[in-house]
Amino acid sequence: MLRLGLAGFGTVGSGLVRILLENHEIITARTGQDISIKTILVRDLAKKRAVTAAPEVRFTTNPDDLVNDPDIDVVVELMGGIDTAKSLITRALHAGKHVITANKHLLALHGPELTALAASRGLGLFFEASVAGGIPIVQTLRESLGANRIERLVGILNGTANYILSEMTTSHLDFATALKQAKDLGYAEADPTYDIEGLDTAHKLVVLIRLAFGRDFPLQGVPVRGITQVTQMDIELAREFGYRIKLLAQARELDGRIEASVQPTLVKYTYLLARVGGNFNAVRVEGNAVGPIMLHGQGAGDTPTGSAVMADVMALCRGLAVPGWRFDNTGFGNKPLPQAEILPAEESVSMHYFRFSVADHPGVMAAISKSMAEHDISIAQAVQKGDMSGSDVPIVFLTHNAKAAAVAATIREIDAMSFTVRPTVQFPIL
Ligand SMILES: NC(=O)c1ccc[n+]([C@@H]2O[C@H](COP(=O)([O-])OP(=O)(O)OC[C@H]3O[C@@H](n4cnc5c(N)ncnc54)[C@H](OP(=O)(O)O)[C@@H]3O)[C@@H](O)[C@H]2O)c1
Question: Are 58 and 92 in the same domain?
Fold first, then answer.
């Protein structure tokens, strides 16, 4: 018998309750345990719910009813937010309860502290649903790929951002229209800032870096660019060169240092990552033994995310069935993770897409090419859209590998030239 105290009965909480009700038989067959929810913590007892909980479930607005109830074995935190969630999880662990959470923002900020507390008490702290919703990437990195040195990780980790970029690409919408459509369909929150500014993706990337590389990478150390500056024009131009623009989270290890970033990136249309459409997520991992693998699926939503939470509940059951089992919450034996040595963003090397906006002026191409050559940036392809008679003509360059510092320097130089009419747009190419 395993009794859950559920904190939060919104999207994910409803999905979890639905799965427990509808798939009870298979879950019991697989775990050999009767798993049930004893109490659900909410803010508003009168609110109408998407799912009806079993009649014996008790509702409360008081966190003490979860934390102080000796019948509750595990607290499942599906409220979101930082302070209340952190306090609930900390109190639950102090009270000897295992914890399952989907709260990536909290984990990105306070994960090491919470996993250390859980380890000191011999308790499980599970978080499969915190990254990429229904995609089992946490367990994959911690267990299935545990024998690998992970060399690189690339992910599309935010369904809202991916939906907007996909609609801009396939339906030729501008950013504002695609965002409104995402809101109308319930894919974007009323305040979509975290999704479109790349912050939610950065939270998830920090959680993945710990699992993949065994290092703690500070959230504020991740360079983040969202999708608000991606225009229809760049999507179309990238497409003409055979690329799609995706919001990518990337991390790799280079000579012991970790390079990480979240930014809109051109991805060759033949790559699987370019094909990830709508509100789907995907994660590509390169391990030194397994080679590249890719997981693809729904990164949000009630039952996809509930499925990941339930996987944690079942993993907990399996651990509890072994007397003296020590839960390894980090995948690194619960030892405190060392701080990552960070590869400074300006040392990052990749191919790049540049769009210069210039006025009709003799020698423009030559001046741009000269500046790039002087910064050691070698040009792979160049195209000028339309003729040079206009006052705002786009010129696109795709480059070979170049250092980010050189890219920034050449943009500064070219943006200061008299023929440049608006700031240069630049994105890396995967
Ligand atoms: N939605 C997704 O697809 C998804 C995917 C992956 C991860 N997550 C993560 O899962 C967590 C939950 O997300 P969600 O979308 O399910 O959120 P949600 O729909 O907004 O639901 C939040 C629930 O928590 C309750 N709650 C919030 N603050 C509370 C407080 N101070 N005291 C008591 N109850 C409180 C709310 O109660 P009331 O209903 O009474 O207001 C509501 O039932 C978040 O950390 C989110 O980042 C969500």
Answer: yes
